[in-house]
Every structure is written in structure tokens, then in C-alpha cells.
User: Which sequence fits this backbone?
């Protein structure tokens, strides 16, 4: 993913989170939860997503979004940071974030 940068940061609560940022500064993916250590945060961001359960859905405003869940504990581990005008656009964004489709 050479066109994207992985940012690791502390949120307002002091938890460590990741977000994937495009060259233009747009956030294209983010963690769904905060972590107590940078090590665990990076493990989540860089894990093999081949076995994750990916879900595509329409939000309350009718936009398309994605989220993915760990098969081990069923917890949400990633999500789209914005709504897309079509499911195809949501899928393209999910591919950036590891969805094999």
C-alpha cells in the first residue's frame, strides 16, 4: 500500500489507535477500538485480514459502509471512516484496508 500511510495516535481517552491515511490526507480506514499499547495496536493494523468477517451495509443516510470482525472473538476490528455513494466504492476502500473480496 505505497499510496497510504499508517498513523498511530492517542485518542482523547489516552487509548492508542490506528488510521490509514491517503497521500491527500484523507482517512481511508481506522481501528474500531483503542488499545493499551502501541504493540497491540500495530498487531491489529498489520494483521492478516484474510479470515476476518467483512460486512457491507447501508447507513441511516443511505450511504454504503464496511466493517470487519475478528473470527476469533467476533469483535469489530476495523471500519470505514466515511459513507460511499455505491457498494462498489465501499468495496474498493475495503480492499485498501485488507479485504480480499
Assistant:
Amino acid at each position: 500500500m505505497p499510496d497510504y500511510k499508517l498513523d498511530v495516535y492517542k485518542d482523547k481517552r489516552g487509548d492508542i489507535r490506528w488510521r490509514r491515511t491517503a497521500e491527500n490526507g484523507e482517512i481511508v480506514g481506522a481501528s474500531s477500538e483503542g488499545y493499551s499499547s502501541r504493540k497491540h495496536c500495530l498487531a491489529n493494523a498489520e494483521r492478516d485480514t484474510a479470515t476476518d468477517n467483512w460486512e457491507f451495509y447501508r447507513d441511516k443516510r443511505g450511504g454504503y459502509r464496511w466493517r470487519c470482525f475478528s473470527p476469533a472473538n467476533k469483535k469489530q476490528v476495523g471500519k470505514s471512516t466515511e459513507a460511499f455513494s455505491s457498494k462498489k466504492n465501499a468495496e474498493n476502500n475495503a480492499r485498501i484496508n485488507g479485504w480480499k473480496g
Observations:
- The chain has one domain: 4-96.
- The chain has a mean pLDDT of 90.
- Residues 20 and 69 are 17 Å apart (CA to CA).
- The beta strands are 4-10, 16-22, 27-30, 53-58, 64-69, 76-79.
